[in-house]
Design goal:
heterodimer, A: alpha+beta, three-stranded antiparallel β-sheet, 3 strands, B: mainly alpha, Ferritin, 2 domains, two-stranded antiparallel ribbon, 13 helices, 68% helix
Chain lengths: 95, 318
């Protein structure tokens, strides 16, 4: 496999225990092990992480931008899902 | 031996220093088992908890009330799913958790074994049951196991809507006609004690608590959480002009807390054992819904297989 055929990998870092892994970027590598090593060199040179996840980019299924409205606008008019929708008198505490 | 530090000791020191434990970290087997038990029970409670409220969706007194109730029951399903996936990070398969729930091996909160005969119960559950759950869950946002803590953060944000909508329902009834106020009072009478039982056995009778506190899975004892809940809730009931059904309830100036009466522990243990008013009904309904959904799961699998077969046929044709 030539270098140009190396798969693209998405890189996720956990900055410290207790926090989720967060997407930081991507890189090319021949396999998962190399992807971890490269991610370590590229993305954690200044102690940015204590744990790395790498996922082949082609394995990620994303929602389509064209579907943004049908997917996400229905929740805009469901204001009753938010606590501020309810009038609780100020005298009532811890609510 | 001398300077040898055991893995258990290292783990304890790690937790003592307020570090979070993540799925791939070494952990004592008992820590893993305790968490699987606790998180799966918590998930089951969210899922079974949909039933007493779903009971009123078709009979909600207004479209507004119906939309709110639907949204709340939908949230409970979501909370169950966040929690099942947190438990799965510990290596417990989802199917096993469901099987344990249905066989009665796994428990869920005893509160959901009480019936909801009145619309007022929809308010009381949001106010008291979700209020008690929040008391426990706010503590759990700082639990030592990372995935559980993160699930709790998301759940706590959403629970605030649940409690406020419940209080609003009770408030409308309490400020309504004498009949409506009586409905609210009658509902409070039935739910008060079971809500206090939600915090579990008293500290003297809670054998797992000490180890859970040591591992910082829990950070407050059952009795401490129960007291905090009582202290917050009594003024909320007073505001509504409703009476908490406990003759021993009174402010204790010296302690700075409300004193309250003895919980009926015999009832608590009976309900846990499966002899509450609705235990059998709740599990039977879960099994029925699961079985009736089998064809949907089969159809989804058949469709996924067909798509995969087509893709591989296209690939070999090309």
């Amino acid at each position: 496999m030539s270098e140009s055929n190396w798969k693209l990998w998405e890189v996720f870092l956990r900055s410290k225990n207790g926090l989720s892994h967060k997407h930081v970027g991507s890189l090319h590598a021949a396999d998962a092990e190399m992807a971890i090593k490269n991610a370590r060199d590229v993305y954690t040179r200044r102690s940015e992480g204590i744990s790395i996840w790498v996922v082949p980019s082609e394995e990620i299924t994303a929602s389509s931008p064209d579907e943004k409205d049908p997917l996400f606008t229905p929740s805009d008019d469901k204001v009753y899902r938010h606590p501020t929708f309810y009038d609780i008198p100020d005298d009532v505490e811890h609510m | 031996m001398g300077t040898n530090v055991s893995l258990e000791d290292k783990f304890q020191a790690y937790v003592d220093a307020e570090n979070r434990v993540e799925p791939k970290d070494w952990m004592p087997e008992k820590y893993r088992k305790t968490l699987i038990r606790q998180i799966s029970q918590h998930a089951h409670s969210e899922i079974i908890g949909m039933q007493p409220e779903a009971n009123w969706i078709t009979r909600a007194p207004s479209l507004r009330a119906k939309l709110i109730l639907l949204a709340k029951v939908q949230d409970e399903a979501g909370h169950g799913l966040y929690l099942y996936s947190a438990a799965e990070t510990l290596g417990e398969p989802r199917e096993k958790m469901i099987a344990d729930l249905q066989s009665g091996k796994a428990k869920y909160s005893s509160i959901f074994n009480y019936p909801t005969p009145s619309w007022a119960d929809m308010g009381t559950i949001g106010w008291l049951v979700d209020g008690a759950a929040i008391q426990n869950q706010v503590m759990l946002t700082r639990t030592s196991y990372g995935p559980y803590a993160r699930a709790m953060v998301k759940i706590c944000k959403e629970e605030s809507f649940h409690q406020r909508q419940g209080y609003e329902v009770v408030m409308k009834l309490a400020q309504g006609t004498p009949e409506q106020k009586a409905m609210a009072q009658e509902s409070l009478n039935r739910w008060w004690w079971p809500s206090l039982m939600m915090f579990g056995p008293s500290d003297d009778n809670s054998p797992n608590s000490e180890q859970s506190m040591k591992w910082k899975i829990k950070r407050k004892s059952n009795d401490t959480l129960r007291q905090e809940f009582v202290d917050k809730t009594v003024p909320q009931a007073e505001y509504l002009g409703l009476t908490i059904p406990d003759a021993d309830l009174k402010w204790n100036e010296e302690r700075g807390h409300y004193d309250f009466g003895e919980i009926n522990w015999a009832e608590f243990y009976e309900v846990i054992k499966g002899n509450g008013p609705c235990n059998k009904e709740r599990i039977a309904h879960h099994v029925k819904a699961h079985e009736e959904g089998a064809w949907v799961r089969e159809a989804a699998n058949a469709y996924a297989k067909k798509q995969a077969d087509r893709a591989s046929n296209d690939a070999s044709a090309a």
